[in-house]
Amino acid sequence: MSKITKPKSALKGSKSDKKQVKMAAEAVEKIVAEKPVEETPADLSKTIVSTSSSTSSVDPAFRIVTGSYEHNLFCVSLLLGTSPVFSPIFHFTPHIQSIKCLATSGRYLVSGSADENIRIYDLQKRKELGTLTHHSGTITALEFYKRKWLLTAGEDGKIFVLRTKDWEVLAELKGHARAAVGKAKVGVVDISVHPTGRLALSVGQDRKLILWNLMTAKKASVMACYPDVLKVAWNLAGDRYAVTYTTSISFFSPETGKLIGAIRSPKDGLYHSEYVSIDGKEYFAFSNSRGVIRFVDTNEFEGKTNDTKNEFKTEDEDIDTISFKVQPHATRVKDFSFLIPDNVPEADRHVYMTSVSTDSKLVITDMNTRETVGAYNTGDRLNCCVMVQEDVEMEIKKALPIPESDHDMSASESEVEMPQPSKKQQKKAAKAARKNKKVKVTIEKDN
């Protein structure tokens, strides 16, 4: 059972922060007749990059949350237009060591840190819900499956599956060891949930790549990998997966388990990687130590090769025929995230990418035009980031749709604050009804 520690304070923010939030929300709801004059915050410097005027009747808006080496969690709202407008939402220190990873699903945000804790936040209420303390090592990966489950992984070699309805641990996936890497001990490095929610992949520096059956919480298969592994990711259709190492990427077919292609980057270290769909095409994106993020067209990549090893090199011109690249930073890109703002008409929606680096800047790129549309200097060495919709605080509570899959590892989350009566309470009420007795069943809200 997971241990949740309630926070002493919520994400209230200052009065000036609340005023900025209100202003940003009003700008999203209606057409802004006149662009507000930007003011540079006293504590945060800002870099603005010019962009072309918006073709939409409503300017795109969204929020970016970042985690840093300085233990800070920072959220900024961005309104794009003839000139981007950044509005800080909150900036505080929830952890006592560096924040390693972030994940979001709907109204929920979670942060994992080297202090072995996972903090939970409700972005709709701007409230901190509590702390998960079931790991005994640095938190290395967090991933939601829709709004039902949260998978967590750490240096202790453990993977847990939690139900977001009450943040209870449903299962512990046992298979990785806590391997020694020099003086440090690193267990699970990354996890990736299959699009169906039935399977998951995990990689660790114990040289294991494990395919998990989430229906049984048991291993389906175990494969070997190199100890310098960094990331693992399913593609959007779930029929391919990629394993990223410090200087190479390997692509596999899960049906055969065979290597179908590879990319090598011998001169530049690799960092973050993931699949993304842009203009109806699936790309595999990965970043390097020179601030470059390359997007490989997966349809063009598979089946093609430029040498006998069935691999491309990032230094060769051949890879440019199947990919494109952007360079939002001058140094290593630690993380990037994608979002399609839902506050604009569907025909005008673009894919936006936020990338972060240890240069303290978060940079926003319009992936449809491949142009930088804004940048913000946070003053922190950034380590991770996620993007959320601008209207996350204005969502009206509503019941979630029936889940598509028939596996019922947990009931789908309900947005209703009042929980349903337990089976014991229902039996008690039914028994009393048969005896024509009135029994009052009370349900306490979670504190």
Any key phrases for this structure?
mainly beta, 32 strands, Methylamine Dehydrogenase, Chain H, five-stranded mixed β-sheet, 3 helices, disordered C terminus, 447 residues, 2 domains
What does this structure look like?
With 447 residues, this protein is mainly β. It folds into 2 domains: 382 residues, Methylamine Dehydrogenase, Chain H (7 Propeller), CATH 2.130.10.10; 31 residues, no CATH class. It has 3 helices and 32 strands. A 5-stranded antiparallel beta sheet has the order 1-8-7-6-5, with no helix packed on it. A hairpin with a 3-residue loop joins strand 29 and strand 30. The longest helix is centred in the first third of the chain and has 15 residues. The C terminus is likely disordered. It holds the Pfam family WD40.
Short description:
By secondary structure, the protein is mostly beta strands. The chain is 7% helix and 42% strand. It has helices at 15-29, 298-301, 423-434; strands at residues 4-5, 61-68, 73-79, 85-92, 99-105, 108-113, 118-122, 127-132, 139-145, 149-154, 159-163, 168-173, 179-181, 184-186, 188-193, 199-204, 208-213, 218-224, 229-234, 241-245, 248-252, 259-264, 270-278, 281-288, 293-297, 311-313, 323-326, 333-339, 352-357, 361-366, 371-377, 382-389.
